[in-house]
């Protein structure tokens, strides 16, 4: 199983709760704004501690009875909702920041279509380019799995298509487990091997 997640967390007035099991491929977390999708990604990444539950990714227990694997040992590749590139570093430096030895930069930049952007500055990138660089940076850290928080939001159709193809390549060719948040049904349908709907 790629993801086995049972979590509960009180956040202010909101109870975030999820119970899901998903196999290989991309699992899409779908649901209305404020239901707790980003909070679930944060719990899987180790940024937010569940009040109770169990998180197993690729057979490895990250959180559960007596277990709370520290964030740096979870090996999550996290692409935040805003790309969060380092503004004072060019694309190449952003990509190689935290890059693991043995991961081939040109393979990653090739399929993401960002080879020509390496000497550019983040402020000069389009939204879609910045997202693809952020995905590339996450991949180059040699993650065990990817967390994608609305990687296609506020992009026009052409840019969304470019990013979507990159995600499909990661799903189908690199076969890295993906947990992705969206509230767009069309995106969920196309990317999701499995769609998990969160409701209040
Ligand atoms: N630290 C916190 N303290 C109190 N409430 C919080 C905290 N963090 C998040 N929340 C609330 O918890 C709820 C879930 O937030 P979260 O960002 O996980 O939802 P989401 O489903 O990802 O929403 P969106 O689709 O709008 O990004 C929201 O109502 C949010 O305001």
UniProtKB/TrEMBL annotation:
Domain ABC transporter: 2-200
Gene Ontology MF terms: ATP binding; ATP hydrolysis activity
Keywords from the UniProt entry: ATP-binding, Nucleotide-binding
InterPro entries: AAA+_ATPase (IPR003593), ABC_transporter-like_ATP-bd (IPR003439), ABC_transporter-like_CS (IPR017871), Molybdenum_import_ModC (IPR050334), P-loop_NTPase (IPR027417)
Coiled coil (residue ranges): none
Domain of life of the native organism: Bacteria
Residues spanning the signal sequence: none
PANTHER family: ABC TRANSPORTER I FAMILY MEMBER 10
Protein name: ATP-binding cassette domain-containing protein
Native organism: Sphingomonas oligophenolica
């Amino acid at each position: 199983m790629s993801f086995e997640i049972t979590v509960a967390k009180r956040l202010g007035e909101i109870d975030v709760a999820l119970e899901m099991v998903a196999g290989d491929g991309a699992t899409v977390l779908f649901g209305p704004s404020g239901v707790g999708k980003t909070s679930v990604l944060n719990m899987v990444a180790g940024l937010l501690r569940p009040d109770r539950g169990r998180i197993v990714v690729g057979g490895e227990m990250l959180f559960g009875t007596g277990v709370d694997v520290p964030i740096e040992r979870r090996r999550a590749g996290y692409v935040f909702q805003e790309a969060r590139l380092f503004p004072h570093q060019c694309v190449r430096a952003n990509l190689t920041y935290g890059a693991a030895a043995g991961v081939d930069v040109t393979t990653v930049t090739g399929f993401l279509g960002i080879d020509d952007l390496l000497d550019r500055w983040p402020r000069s990138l389009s939204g879609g380019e910045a997202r693809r660089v952020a995905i590339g940076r996450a991949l180059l850290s040699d993650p065990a799995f990817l967390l994608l928080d609305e990687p296609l939001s506020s992009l026009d159709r052409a840019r969304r298509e470019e990013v979507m193809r990159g995600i499909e390549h990661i799903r189908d060719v690199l076969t890295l487990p993906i947990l992705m948040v969206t509230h767009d049904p069309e995106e969920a349908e196309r990317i999701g091997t499995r769609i998990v709907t969160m409701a209040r």
